Amino acid sequence: MVENTFKDMNYSEYFTNRPTDQITRDLIGRPLTFTNQNNQVLGGYIVEAEAYMGRKDRAAHSYGGRRSPANEGLYRPGGTIYIYSQRQYFFFDVACQEENEPQGVLIRAIEPVWGIEQMIKNRSGKDGVLLTNGPGKMMQAFGIHSRNWDLHPLEESPFSIDLDDNKRKIPREIIATPRIGINQSDPYWAEKKLRYIVSGNPYVSGMKKHNYANNNGWT
């Protein structure tokens, strides 16, 4: 039996009780779901997530204390949803730490489990690893095309991250790597290993077929 460390925590406690990189690593293997307007539950297990360490982190939207309506979610209390957009894509983050300490975690990929048929429809027929192997793809699979849930506390939204350790899927190995798409002009933050993945899981963005692990990298 796995010790049930976080089951009785609320989201604000979970997302503030230790450093953001540790929170990000702990999210790997946890179920993330979205309940749509038709009461369909869509989602899967988190296999890839990146930590953003706030004002000091040159890759963070809050670097240097930048603050605007677009990134306000990062400044809200831990457990607040921060959704941002790039071109036509939307990305799902959760604020970490206390209010006005603008750190967060970006969920980059899930291994789909629930509502797969609807997610394929939402992705215009794309299936297999292409269904959710990237942050924009995951949000498309959920049918999300706006920032409507930005600034909402997780517990007051259709999103859910299950904190029950007994429902968490256990990776054989969690690997820390540099984050994706970070400006190389600052090597320290570009190379800092703040991206956590399930080793060998095919739904991790950019995972090569020859690196796929048996049982998708789960124990």
Automatic annotation (TrEMBL):
Keywords: DNA damage, DNA repair, Hydrolase. The keyword NADP does not apply. The keyword DNA repair applies. Belongs to the DNA glycosylase MPG family. It is an enzyme of class 3 (hydrolase). One of its GO terms (biological process) is base-excision repair. Pfam families: Pur_DNA_glyco. InterPro entries: Formyl_transferase-like_C_sf (IPR011034), MPG (IPR003180), MPG_sf (IPR036995). This is Putative 3-methyladenine DNA glycosylase. The lineage of its organism: Bacteria, Bacillati, Bacillota, Bacilli, Lactobacillales. GO terms for molecular function: alkylbase DNA N-glycosylase activity; DNA binding. Its EC number is 3.2.2.-. It comes from the Bacteria. CDD domains: AAG. NCBIfam families: 3mg (TIGR00567).
